[in-house]
Write a structure and sequence with these properties.
globular; 3-stranded antiparallel sheet; disordered C terminus; alpha+beta; 18 helices
């Protein structure tokens, strides 16, 4: 009999590493007097006729195998197990008392046998009907979630994704997201793959036709029809120009929000900051500014605003654009604004020192500035909103620091769904100051398209209820998942289609929804006061409310209070509440004081 119980010396089967966490869904252990598998139990029943040793009914055995099948399929998809390794595991299980299991992983995961790809826009093209995909994704939610949904807000994302470093071939997926149901679900509705980028916009047509039907008829889920609306279409600047049929941002009329004519100053810059003539849906459809358009956009066939529904993407243009630009200017710019190598190292040491103090809600820990060329968008966002104001204080010149703080405070307001409703105008004024002061500090060449687009950020955030409601972050995360499931350069679009067909059969685990529920119940009998000295012991006492959670670790406890960071000396967990004694708190100002 085989043993699949992990040990310290050997955790591999047919070249497949099995970690402890991978075996949470099922147990496959060496038979012992305390643990007998189904086949051995039945064998013993044949030898011992006493009633207490009778084998379980065949229906119970079938239910057990059915659950095992579902757990195995989820495990294969969750950990991207190669099919040859999973086939070997299935063979072992079939020989160990589970003969009803399939012999092939493709049968287990219901892998698509046929990939109906065609040629469109000069690339390989595969399409997944929007209505079918939306229905499948929506029904993956628990019933308690779907019953509360009165409407579905969809966002689209179109962007290029290079799958291999050694090839110029690029994947261009059309991604759709259900944005108003937590957690946000992203799924592809079309994919093109080939050299460079699509030669025309034909690859958009199927998606647009299906969306128009859904906008008119809604989504029929049987007992009711759910209305569908389009929240936004999120793209980076080059992809947005492609799908809208407009000039690139490097053109004289490259801004898709206003009609300002750019100037050539070694590159296209946008010097004006006030009284800008804004584009409208009518002016766009009439192509009243002919120098802005290249061709007709298929999106004009949809009943959406062709200006407002294509937001400035703060992931690409603020985090990867403006914030990265500022850091590179300080590190590699001219001597008037450049900081010394010693100061760069000092900032890096401060960032590394913050690692142990970063809450668990951050996706990444701070890294040294020596790795800035490899920083991800989330790291620039973290620097902009949180760590930058700490590590730059006392190192940057006062005017440069105040200039950075104007961007940081404005961004912090605009990412907050609450603050953006009341303080968006103040954030807008800060961003105008940021652009105008940037011209004085860094020269006219600073006023490139990404910097200019900050002028349009505040009104957009107010319309969508915060920058996170119209950003590329959830889509970018999903695109990286697509990249990871491609295992070779042979027909990658077929590989992707088959992996997606497998994922459709997996229900979203119930535990995913725990952190998104209205409020989780806390043990009413639990009451404890924690002293500051115990914060450093990394206790695992966690209270889950809406979001975020409160953890009794020093790095995970903070209470925002006006313009201060309040670090409580003690917390009391009493009757499902948290009592924070403000009289026993440390207060640290987050605002820069003028010298």
């Amino acid at each position: 009999m085989y043993s699949l119980e992990p040990s310290d010396t050997d955790q591999s089967i047919a070249g497949l590493d099995i970690e402890q966490s991978d075996t949470e869904h099922f147990e496959l252990l060496e038979p012992s007097p305390k643990r007998l598998n189904v086949s051995e139990s039945c064998a013993n029943d044949q030898l011992h006729s006493s009633p207490e040793n009778y084998c379980s009914s065949s229906s119970d055995s079938d239910d057990l195998d059915e659950k095992l099948r579902a757990d195995l399929a989820e495990w294969v998809n969750a950990y991207q197990i190669k099919h040859n390794a999973a086939d070997r595991l299935l063979k072992i299980l079939k020989e160990s008392g589970h003969p009803s299991l399939p012999g092939s992983t493709r049968t287990l995961t219901k892998t698509a046998r046929y990939v109906p790809s065609t040629q469109k826009s000069g690339m390989d093209y595969v399409y997944f009907p929007v209505k079918e995909e939306l229905m499948q994704q929506f029904l993956r939610y628990p019933k308690a979630v779907t019953e509360k949904a009165t409407t579905l807000e969809l966002s689209l994302n179109i962007d290029g994704l290079p799958l291999f470093k050694s090839s110029s071939n690029t994947l261009w997926p059309i991604l759709c997201g259900i944005m108003n149901v937590e957690p946000v679900t992203v799924f592809p509705v079309a994919m093109t793959y080939g050299r460079s980028k699509p030669t025309n916009l034909e690859f958009l047509q199927d998606t647009i036709d299906d969306l128009n039907v859904l906008l008119n008829d809604g989504l029929d889920i049987g007992e009711r029809v759910i209305p569908i609306s389009i929240r936004c279409i999120v793209c980076d600047a080059p992809a947005k120009a492609l799908v809208k049929g407009t000039k690139l941002y490097s053109g004289y009329f490259g801004c898709d929000k206003c009609c300002q004519r750019g100037e050539w100053f070694g590159r296209i810059i946008y010097p004006d900051t006030r009284n800008l003539e804004l584009r409208t849906d009518t002016s766009f459809r009439d192509q009243s500014n002919d120098d802005h358009h290249r061709t007709d956009s298929p999106f004009c066939q949809m009943p959406i605003d062709m200006v407002d529904k294509f937001p400035v993407d703060y992931m690409h243009q603020l985090c990867l654009g403006v914030m990265k630009k500022l850091l590179l200017i300080w590190m590699r710019g001219n001597r008037d604004v450049k900081i010394s190598a010693r100061q760069v190292e000092e900032i890096s040491q401060k960032l590394i020192g913050l690692k142990s103090a970063m809450p668990s809600s951050f996706a990444r820990k701070p890294r040294s500035l020596s790795d800035i060329d490899r920083w991800k968008a989330t790291e620039f966002r973290q620097f902009l909103l949180y760590t930058g104001k700490i590590v730059l204080d006392g190192i940057l010149k006062t005017d440069l620091y105040a200039h950075f703080m104007s961007l940081s405070i404005a961004s912090r307001i605009l990412v907050s769904p609450t603050l953006v409703q009341t303080h968006w105008k103040y954030a807008s004024d800060l961003l105008v100051y940021f652009v105008e002061k940037g011209r004085d500090l860094y020269g006219r060449e600073f006023l490139v398209y990404n910097v200019h687009s900050m002028l349009h950020l505040a009104s957009q955030a107010k319309e969508f209820g915060g920058l996170d409601s119209c950003s590329s972050f959830p889509f970018e995360n999903y695109m990286q998942k697509l990249k990871r499931v491609v295992r070779s350069g042979k027909n990658p679009i077929a590989q992707l289609t088959k992996r997606l067909s497998e994922l459709r059969t997996i229900k979203i685990p119930e535990k995913v929804f725990e952190q998104h529920c209205a409020r989780s119940q806390i043990m009413p009998s639990y009451s404890k006061t924690v002293s500051p000295a115990k914060f450093y012991r990394k206790q695992a006492i966690v209270m889950r409310m809406e979001t975020p959670s409160i953890s009794v670790e020093f790095t995970n406890i903070y209470v925002p209070c006006s313009t201060h960071l309040v670090i409580p000396e003690s917390l009391e967990f009493i009757e499902q509440t948290v009592a924070v004694h403000e009289s026993n708190c440390y207060h640290q100002s987050l605002l820069h004081k003028k010298q």
